[in-house]
Design brief:
Its cofactor is biotin. Keywords: ATP-binding, Biotin, Ligase, Nucleotide-binding. This is Acetyl/propionyl/methylcrotonyl-CoA carboxylase subunit alpha. Helices cover 27% and strands 33% of the residues. It is built from 18 helices and 41 strands. The strands form eleven sheets. The chain has an eight-stranded antiparallel barrel. Strand 32 and strand 33 form a beta hairpin.
Length: 666
């Protein structure tokens, strides 16, 4: 019996909520969002027809509150809830609660979620269904001695995995019997902390495995199909970095075998809706790893090669309809690749970043490129949630075309305000081994030196573009201050004219430990810049959005320079580079203070406070040291006085112009 859905509440946030609502609106459904206090102005709230607050910023007090979400569904008149992925998407209690409230859960039955929720129980079930398993121990007995003996039986190296979770937590590779007890204890502690359950399983560790997953779909009429496979082998710390479909090198025979195994796995638990059966493969063999009972982050690559909308399939199946296509009718055309753009700093061991997205350009304007995002320029990446900025998906007639488009899409992506993994992703896309589809889960570790090179000094091209941007900005500001009654006044040109000398301006930049002084000599159509590598003729035009069309010694190129405070971020030839402009006016302000207030000369970290409140100081005494780009900047006392107030502590991050302390007369 078909039960039409008219109003859909999306119990999630960010890009997945926006993506689900896009399809729901296309089907004519009314959409309802929920949001925490931190997400009041989020994109998914703006996209929805209605939005309801559900609690404070921490997920456990908002997006994980079943009662708050069901209350929002009742108030909005929603007759169905889509859980997205993450949060409550694989929570059997939530699926049960929806059913009890008379609301359609756009997902599998609670029984299927429970059956696949424990890795150990799922593998026992798969063994009965004849789905191939990695040799290992998946039993309930967790005696340390028994687990050690099972590891010996399996043969080292082995992999210890938390039974109740994923994402790399509670997962340890053990290469010898001597290392097993300590690794086991560590894995159990992590599992207990992350999932509240310290049960583990032990499996044979494959040394060069590929991670291949199969998209399955089932309806309530007994039909179940697979929509081909995805290769997710490129991972970092057991978390996916690049996903593509179909898997390179997959033969039709092997695809059929893996598809059948995935369908058998789904049927074994009475599945309904979208699910993903994950396999690990090495050589001619493949083994069941786990089943994710939800839509996956990487589902767009499957949509690209099949031409199907999987969220639409989910909604139709949830209404009681049969699957839109039979197995034989599902197409497979071309190749698609997805990468996840994260606010994280590869130079600091991929530390997640939080803060404002001052500038954001995503490559959705490119052909055959799709961008799924939940943020806009000006939004804040919060400490409370996953720091993903966007998913970038490209497609082509074949893999080579898709790889080229991936490089182009990443080259056209610009983010300022937060460190991201964009350059790291672009290095993967450009690597010869990636182009050759030499894929396994050790790809990043094997090529780490190339993918994560040591920081290098910026070159003359970058410095020239940064200098040109500053010079054009200064010219605009000078032009705006010219007396409107005398627009031809020579004072408005501000050329730095000197008697019997070339007109020039001196600019100073900081690049990590380097201080770079550049002299710009004015010429009729541009400048001659005295750069570290020699003189360069520079001319060009700058737009308000930071775009530059420049000629450097006659070579024409396009770039963009974004200024935030004194930081200049230069995007050129697919790379991004940061330098600091040392503005003499700001330095003067910091040195003299304003009404006794001393401010930070540039964004940075307080690394030393040389005074205490109430302390008397003399002119020139060091007060506070700010570190920016590994360079120390000392704020000194502009006169004799007494420290009235300190505004920050050592270790605090400060913005440019932030008041550091107040100095009063002694």
């Amino acid at each position: 019996m078909i039960r039409p859905i008219r109003t859909l509440l999306v119990a999630n946030r960010g890009e997945i909520a926006v993506r689900v609502m896009r399809t729901a609106k296309a089907l004519g459904l009314r959409t309802v969002a929920v949001y925490s206090e931190a997400d009041a102005d989020a994109l998914h709230v703006a996209v929805a027809d209605e939005a309801y607050p559900i609690g404070p910023a921490p997920a456990r007090e908002s997006y994980l509150r079943i009662d708050a979400i069901l209350d929002a569904a009742q108030k909005s008149g929603a007759d169905a809830i889509h859980p997205g992925y993450g949060f409550l998407s694989e929570n059997a209690a939530f699926a049960d609660a929806c059913e009890q409230a008379g609301i359609v859960f756009v997902g599998p039955p609670a029984s299927a979620i429970r059956a696949m929720g424990s890795k150990s129980a799922a593998k026992a079930l798969m063994e009965k269904a004849g789905v191939p398993l990695v040799p290992g121990y998946h039993g309930e007995d967790q005696d340390a001695g028994l687990l050690a003996r099972e590891a010996e039986r399996i043969g080292f190296p082995v992999l210890i995995k938390a039974s109740a979770g994923g994402g790399g937590k509670g997962m340890k590779v053990v290469r010898s019997a001597e290392d097993f007890p300590e690794a086991l204890a560590s894995a159990q502690r992590e599992a207990k902390s992350a999932f509240g359950d310290d049960k583990v399983l032990v499996e044979k560790y494959l040394t060069t495995p590929r991670h291949i997953e199969v998209q399955v779909f089932a309806d309530s009429h007994g039909n179940c199909v697979y929509l081909h496979e995805r290769d997710c082998s490129i991972q970092r710390r057991h978390q996916k970095v690049v996903e593509e479909a179909p898997a390179p090198g997959m033969t039709p025979e092997r695809r059929a075998a893996m598809g059948k195994a995935a369908v058998d796995a789904a049927k074994a638990v009475g599945y309904r809706g979208a699910g993903t059966v994950e396999f690990i493969a090495e050589g001619e063999h493949f083994y069941f790893m786990e089943m994710n009972t939800r839509l996956q982050v990487e589902h767009p690559v499957t949509e690209a090669i099949t031409g199907q909308d999987l969220v639409q399939w989910q909604i139709r199946v949830a209404q009681g309809e049969t699957l839109p296509l039979t197995q034989e009718e599902i197409p497979l055309e071309g190749h698609a690749i997805e990468v996840r753009l994260y606010a994280e700093d590869p130079a600091r061991d991929f530390l997640p970043q939080v803060g404002r997205l001052d500038h954001l350009v995503l490559p959705s304007h490119l052909d055959h490129t799709r961008v799924d995002t939940g943020v806009r320029a000006g939004d804040t990446v919060s400490i409370h949630y996953d720091p993903m900025i966007a998913k970038i998906i490209v497609s082509g007639a074949d893999r080579l075309e898709a790889v080229r488009r991936l490089e182009a899409a990443l080259a056209a992506t610009e983010v300022v305000g937060l460190a991201t993994n964009r350059v790291f992703l672009k290095a993967i896309a450009a690597h010869p081994a990636f182009a050759a589809a030499e894929l396994d889960t050790n790809f990043i570790a094997r090529h780490q030196d190339v993918l994560l090179p040591a920081p290098a000094p910026v070159d003359d091209m970058v410095l020239a573009l940064a200098a040109l941007s500053i010079l054009k900005e200064e010219a605009r500001q000078s032009a705006e201050t010219v007396d409107a009654a005398d627009p031809w006044s020579p004072w408005g040109l501000a050329p730095g004219w000197r008697l019997n000398r070339d007109a020039h301006v001196d600019l100073t930049f900081a690049d990590r430990e380097r201080r770079i002084d550049i002299r710009a000599h004015f010429r009729p159509h541009g400048f001659i810049l005295a750069l570290p590598g020699g003189d360069m003729a520079v001319e060009g035009e700058a737009e308000a959005d930071g775009s530059l069309r420049a000629r450097l010694d006659g070579v024409a190129l396009s770039a963009r320079v974004i200024r935030t405070g004194n930081r200049l971020t230069v995007f050129v030839r697919g790379g991004e580079y940061a330098v600091d402009f040392i503005d003499p006016r700001l330095a003067s302000q910091a040195a003299t203070g304003t009404a006794g207030r001393l401010v930070a000369p540039m964004p940075g970290t307080i690394i030393r406070i040389a005074v205490e409140e109430g302390q008397e100081v003399t002119k020139g005494a060091a007060l506070v040291v700010v570190e920016a780009m590994k360079m120390e900047h000392t704020v000194a006392a502009p006169r004799d006085g007494k420290v009235k107030a300190l505004k920050f502590a050592v270790g605090d991050l400060v913005d440019e112009g932030a008041e550091l302390l107040v100095l009063e007369d002694a």
